Amino acid sequence: MSIGRRGFLKIAAVGAGAAGASAASAAAGAHPVDGPGVLVDTTRCVGCRACEAACAESNRLPPPPESDAVFDERRDVAPDVFTVVNRTEKAPGVQRFAKKQCMHCLAPGCASACPVRAMDKKPEGPVVYDPSRCMGCRYCMLACPFDIPKYEYSSNAPRVRKCSFCAERQKNGLKPACTEVCPSGALTFGRRSALLEEAKTRIYTNPGKYLHHVYGEHEAGGTSWLYITDVDLERLAFRTDAPQKPLPELVAGALGAPPFVMTLWPPLLMGLYAFSRRREEVAATEPHGAHGHDAGAAKEDDHGHR
Amino acid sequence: MATASLATAQPSFFREKILLGMTAPQYLRSLLTPWNLVAAVILAVGIPILVIRFAVGLGATTNLTQTAPWGVWIGFDMMTGIVLAAGGFTIGATVQLFGLKEYHAIERPAILTAFLGYLMAVFGLLADLGRPWNIIQAIFNYGTASALFEVAWCVMLYTTVLLLEFTVPLLEWLGWTRAHGVMKKALLALTVLSVVFSTMHQSALGSLFLLAPTKLHPLWYTPYIFIFFFISAIIAGICMVVVESSISHRIFASQVKGHAADVDALTIGLGRAGALVMFAYFFLKLQGVIDGHAWGYLATGYGAWFLVEILGFVLLPSLLFAAGARNGNVRMVRVAGVIGVLGIVLNRLNVSMIAFNWNQPVRYVPSWMEIWVSVTLVTLGVLVFRWIVNRMPILRADPRFSEGH
Q: What is the maximum alpha-carbon separation in chain B?
């Protein structure tokens, strides 16, 4: 059914001219050919939080707390914290850590939600934010299935804040700050396709060690950041209920409607108008005819006298 | 400006048109009524809250959180305000396009309500936007993959259309015959545009939630939510016109002498239409549950709440409309209209706040200041409505322009 409808939509889009652009751009969801990615192997993470410190330094954010007491409670990213490491107990005495930050979706819900393209997916891969365009509707926050974008509610010129995948550093040929400092090999920066193969290789060559799932391969239609773990990521403060398809696809059908409305409504409505005009004229010329329009005509006459 | 220049041309204009024929002291004394006092208190608190909001930020005035980025100012002012203003295009189309001229008597109040409703919704939005000065960016940056882009453009264009439709009574009031003739001719085209833009943004307001399948409760989340939003906008339009025409014809009775019987007949007709649309909507809501495989949730607390919405506020008013229309019971139709309006409000609040983030540990509860600002905006709308109705030919025809609608 949906294929038939989409085919039909394309025909309608041609007729609607510029209006068709909305349907087309929603459906396209610009995938980079093979963008950068990071593979996070939570079995290798030792919870040193060097990534947190490097992130804060690189983004000129307040340094993260020194004490490891921060692990005692679940933390979330915040307007001035772009990445956090959380801890859980796999078994008594066996701890697991996972770093959380923007997943940099291949077809990001946040960017598709933004009416002014302040949140945008760069062709190179990172999902970045430009406060100079942002009007502060916060629809990106609502649209993110991972709850990553955070808002500066206490400011009167607030910004949406989140990890930018160190887009500036990447442009200069550098790795993202967090991946550069990771001492344990938990973070691997590279091409996403290669990392996906590496992730699966690790799963298959270490039977029983990992859960058979690469988090980020299909979540939200695929993300630049990929995770392999041996514990449920929900225990490490991740949302595991993200849809298994690109979020922009969810809206594509509804966004296909405007071309229809704009092309079909006016002629239809004008037709109805012509019809009602004609009915009035007929009623006026033969007001006492045997037709069922008598009552209506009488009412209109009555109205005219007022 | 226009009034000022005219005032110099005709010395009595200001007194006749603005002060309703009274002298300034008389007019000011006439404002000293209990309801005006209530309104003054609301504004006296509400406006300083808005000042704080813009001086200090959203954090100082709202209970918005990182998981609840949208609160009452979106859920009520925008979502509910826009849908309740749907009477403008519903009745406009009925009169101008479908040729049901007898509804002309309620067309102008419906359009004025819609215009003021949209203005208040836009004010509410400006308060809610973190960087409202950037709202202009929507004109230059085309985020065409966003339903909000569609909403922004359609609301912008439709508010303009409503303003233009409102110029017809405005120009009658000013006595500008030639401009009035032009606008009157344009009314047909404007009505077509109002239906086109309303279809798009009323449904697109629902499409906004399509991006949140894991956040909106499955009983409310459906791929067809945009169709539900459009159909419920028509319901809201009908119910609001029933309610609002009965209220304004009671309050402004002196202006509509002898027309009361007509309004009763129109109300019955609206009840018939309301019964049909609401009945269809009820079954569509059920279809949404079937399609989403969400039956299991009906046995939960949210399920009970959902049933309250669709049984108590959709099915019940639909049956009341039908019974009232069949038996010529105007009172019953009005009661159904009130329940219908409350049902639409409930639906929009459910989608945007109550059933949103249903699975999150921290729930959003609005601060008193957020609610106060919303009440302030409604109060402003009512005051402006009254100011205009007392002066311009909204509820009654201007004798100089009465021939032919």
A: 71
The ranges assigned to domains in chain B are 43-393
Partners of A107 on chain B (C-beta within 8 Å) are none
Q: Of chain A residues 239-278, which have a CB less than 8 A from chain B?
A: 239, 241-243, 247-248, 250-251, 253-255, 257-258, 261-262, 265-266, 269-270, 272-273, 275-277
CA dist., res. B325 & res. B51, Å (int): 48
Kindly list the structural domains of chain A, giving each domain's residue range(s) and its CATH number in brackets, ordered by start: 1-29+251-306 (no CATH), 32-245 (3.30.70.20)
pTM of the model: 0.87
**CA triplet B336, B340, B346: central angle to 5 degrees?**
145
Token pair, residue B161, equals 């259309």
H helices present in B10-66, as ranges: 13, 24-30, 34-56, 58-61
- Measure the CA–CA gap between B122 and A55, rounded to whole angstroms: 39
Q: Do A137 and B148 touch (CB under 8 A)?
A: yes
**Residue indicated by tokens 């069949």:** B326
Q: Does B101 touch chain A (CB under 8 A)?
A: yes
Alpha-carbon dihedral sign for residues B36, B39, B44, B48: negative
Secondary structure of chain A in HEC code, one letter for each residue: CHHHHHHHHHHHHHHHHHHHHHHHHHHHCCCCCCCEEEEEECCCCCCCCHHHHHHHHHCCCCCCCCCHHHHHCCCCCECCECCEEEEEEEECCEEEEEEECCCCECCCHHHHHCCCCCEEECCCCCEEECCCCCCCCCHHHHHCCCCCCEECCCCCCCCEECCCCCHHHHHCCCCCHHHHHCCCCCEEEEEHHHHHHHHHHHHHHCCCCCCCCCECCCHHHCECEEEECCCCHHHHCCCCCCCCCCCHHHHHHHHCHHHHHHHHHHHHHHHHHHHHHHHHHHHHHCCCCCCCCHHHHHHHHHHHHC
- pLDDT tens, chain A, 306 aa long: 344 444 444 444 444 443 334 443 443 444 546 899 999 999 999 999 999 999 999 999 999 999 999 999 999 999 999 999 999 999 998 999 999 999 999 999 999 999 999 999 999 999 999 999 999 999 999 999 999 999 999 999 999 999 999 999 999 999 999 999 999 999 999 999 999 999 999 999 999 999 999 999 999 999 999 999 999 999 999 999 999 999 999 999 899 888 888 899 899 999 989 988 888 888 888 765 444 444 444 444 444 343
